[in-house]
Amino acid sequence: MENRPSLLRKVALSYTGYFAMAALIIGLSLITFMEMRQIELKILAGERIAEFFDTTLEIRRYEKSYLLYGGQGYFDENRSHTEKARQQLNLYRKDFSQLAAAEDLDRLHRNLDSYRQLMDEFRGLPPESPSARKLEEKIRLTGKEIVTFGEALAKTERAFLRASLDRSRSFLLGYITLLSLSMIAIGFVLWRKVVNPLQHMEHCIAALSEGKPGRIEIDSDDREIVYITRAFNRMVQELELRQRCLNRSEKLASLGTLLSGVAHELNNPLSNISTSCQILQEEESDADPAFRRELLHQIDEQTNRARDIVRSLLDFSRDKDSRKTAVPLAELVAETLRFSKGQIPSSVEVATTIPEDIALFADRRRLQQAFLNLIKNAVEAVGDRGRIGISARLADSSLDSLFHGACNDFGPAVDIAVNDSGSGIPADILPRVFDPFFTTKEVGQGSGLGLAIVHDIVEEHAGCIAVESLPGQGTTFHIRLPLNPQPACQTDD
What we know:
five-stranded mixed sheet; 10 helices
């Protein structure tokens, strides 16, 4: 086995990366949960601090009311809230210790005790006495210090909570960004190293299934991709070899049609040559010189005619590179019909309507093979009785809907129609008639390449072909070819 990187290993590593990210997500989720729990505890601590701060404000409110108006009720409320503050300080000391030093909390505790003692002393003195005024000042200062501490504690708690939220937000944003980038990176690697080569291979296989074989060229060192590519290219090479053999068989079948026509065509000039020679032999010495020259001229003319027929046959059968020249369409169709005469029953009517001035820039041999295949198909469709028509005219917009793409845009063109009065083609089969190897004939009766070859020949000449058919009403093949030289049509992959 070749020492190549493995596609399976890359996929496994990619899945391992995703599993690692899943584990990371779980871990980060747990950390986030713990962080949220800490924030929840801090919010709870903030509520306790806010409650303590509210209690200190109530202490000051009832203190002012008592100092201004006196009254046992104000004093009792003040005493109740002072005791409540002392209880909260003792109960929530752990929460408070996260925001204030222990000595500050101890001083607050002493201030609360001192405040309660000062209020008790103030209660036993006359309000207008100098001692009461001094105590009142101390009470105000001590109460203010208690409220100030509570307010500072609340502000510190809010700032601490805000910092915790900012930290959690940054943490979440950071790890979400990290995960997103990691997933994008892994996805990109998977796409470039795994999905892209497989998609390219899929497109090549789809093209092969549509009769457009082509070798796969994939920039990949993965062992599996390399082996599949090699196997596919070997298969394509084998298919191309077999298709060439089938094309040659189809060409030989067309050549058989030509030979049948040639036999009929050669009979006439050979008969004329034979008759002229017999007359010359019989009147060897008595014949008039002018008459002898006439007979010799006929022999020469008929010999040239036979030579041209044989040359046409040889040109058709010989494998050679495509060579496009100006081809008179009417002459080419007439010659093709002469060669097909032996294959067309006498009860089948053949009508042609082709202007003499239409000439195509085409490969005569290849175009003649296309017409031979279409005529052969038409003869098979009509059977022993019917009608075949071949017509041509300069292209106009009336048939544009049948064609597509550049075939409507390449300028002056000719529309050729080959129709028959046969039984027609069913609608479900019609879209497949140009597919290679598709045939409705019985096994051994046809290769399914006739119309596929016609399609290829038309595309070689930068043209388009379409078919119309209704069951019971016959079939018409429409061909549009440019009058001027054109590059080959580009087919959509």
